[in-house]
Write a structure and sequence with these properties.
Elements (H helix, E strand, L loop, with lengths): L2 H25 L4 H9 L5 H16 L2 H16 L7 H10 L4 H15 L6 H15 L6 E4 L6 H10 L8 H7 L5 E6 L9 E8 L6 H5 L13 E9 L10 H15 L5 E4 L6 H6 L3 H8 L14 H13 L5 H15 L2 E2 L2 E2 L2 H7 L4 E6 L6 H7 L3 E5 L5 H9 L5 E7 L1
Parallel strand pairs: 4-5, 8-10
Antiparallel strand pairs: 1-2, 2-3, 3-4, 6-7, 8-9
Helix pairs in contact: 2-3, 2-4, 6-7
């Protein structure tokens, strides 16, 4: 074969190998010494910033197994740096400087929270990132915006995607949630301005609402806002797992109340209609002796029989009663158990996360409602009961002081239905 023919055949092969080499160089994992550069190099170091871009790109496209490997390598490198000082903060600032870096870091922390107990040394990095995100998502940086049916479709889709309390099954259901007689508000950050970080859905009523299925019913007539005296916050959803523990939800409700009073000065009262997400799980773990004490009933032998499973039997009984004919005795027992659960404190905190949120904002428990959410989710998590937390603007500080003293505030004459 002529020599020039051999050369001609070699050229495509050499070109392919060169291109493959460049691709492998671009997509390879950093070596340990390079990973240390992510921490140690100056924030203006061009090579280190290029490596950060490669690392974040690789992480974004990786599956869970590879992401865990990359986080483990970061944690291992972090633990080996002496003196460490603020090098973890420098790493995250470097990653934040990349394109869409803030969104990347929020997702990164979500993974850290998932795996921090499984990857040695990851907790330190997670806490450093939490500190930065707390500053970057300070409430002063957030913008409150209304969301309605005229909002962009991409934003409305996110309400369907992120609704965490009462699932939205269709566009028609969403239309009802953001209709002209309802309100929906969300906090946005300029670095993630297409994502609602937390949003609240509001209905209006002449009295405090006690059944969420009535509020969500597509056939319920529109509310007459001229007659509205109560604003009911019936769904509050946080959308970013990576911002867990960074509190701006309390500011959301207070800002929304200000907006509502400005628009609808006839409003007099503000309350939630909230789930009790941990109640059934808690009740199912209680034994017969505990239940006897809680219900002040030592005469009924049902508690003593199969004492370990007494709580589970009560869960089943309350769930059945919620969708059937419940006796006054069963209703009173269920409401009493729910009241005890909502005011229970462990390690200095209320055990129910929703109670912790609202009472921690200065609200009080106003009423516990029987058969208020008979959806499958409502039955499963709370035996269909819901609670109204009342936001009395003149009492918020006093309620917080009482909570700090270990005495959650409840209505003087707690009304049960």
């Amino acid at each position: 074969m002529p020599e020039h023919t051999l050369e001609k055949n070699r050229e495509p092969t050499h070109g392919l190998i060169a291109r493959l080499g460049r691709w492998l160089e671009r997509d390879r994992l950093p070596a340990p010494v390079e990973t240390q550069t992510l921490f140690a190099a100056r924030l203006t170091d061009v090579a280190a910033n290029r490596l950060a871009r490669q690392w974040s790109t690789r992480y974004t496209t990786a599956d869970d197994a590879e992401r865990r490997f990359l986080l483990a390598e970061l944690a291992q490198t972090s633990a080996g740096i002496e003196p460490r000082d603020d090098l973890g903060v420098r790493l995250f600032k470097r990653l934040n400087a990349q394109t869409d870096g803030l969104r990347f870091l929020v997702g990164l922390r979500a993974d850290m929270l998932r795996w921090r107990k499984q990857i040695a040394g990851l907790t330190l990095l997670e806490r450093e990132l939490e500190g930065l995100l707390s500053n970057w998502f300070d409430v002063g940086m957030l913008e409150l915006k209304p969301i309605n049916w005229d909002s962009p479709a991409s934003l409305l889709e996110k309400l369907i995607q992120y609704e965490a309390v009462h699932e939205i099954h269709s566009w028609d259901e969403l239309r009802r949630r953001v209709a002209k007689d309802r309100r929906c508000y969300a906090f946005f950050h300029p670095g993630m301005d297409d994502v609602p970080l937390i949003f609240v859905e509001v209905a209006f009523a002449p009295k405090m609402a006690d059944n969420v299925q009535v509020l969500l019913d597509m056939q319920t007539p529109p509310d007459d806002l001229s007659k509205a005296r109560w604003a009911i916050f019936y769904s509050i959803s946080s959308t970013q797992a990576g911002l867990r523990g960074i509190s701006f939800g309390n500011f959301l409700l207070k800002r929304v109340i200000d907006e509502l009073l400005s628009e609808l000065p006839n409003l007099k009262s503000f309350a939630t209609l909230s789930p009790i997400p941990g109640f059934a799980a808690w009740l199912g773990k209680q034994d017969g002796k505990v239940l006897q004490e809680l219900l002040h009933d030592r005469t009924d032998n049902q508690y003593a029989q199969d004492s370990v499973r007494s709580g589970l039997r009560w869960v089943a009984q309350l769930q059945k009663a919620a969708v059937g004919d419940a006796s006054d005795v069963v209703q009173r027992a269920g409401l009493k158990l729910a009241a005890h659960y909502l005011t229970s404190i462990k390690s200095g905190q209320l055990i129910d996360p929703v109670a912790r949120f609202h009472l921690g904002n200065g609200a009080r428990i106003e009423r516990i409602n029987w058969a208020a959410d008979c959806s499958p989710k409502g039955l499963q998590q709370s035996c269909a009961m819901m609670v109204n937390y009342l936001y009395s603007l003149d009492e918020l500080d006093e309620n917080l002081l009482q909570l700090a003293a270990g005495k959650p505030r409840i209505a003087r004459h707690l009304r049960w239905r």
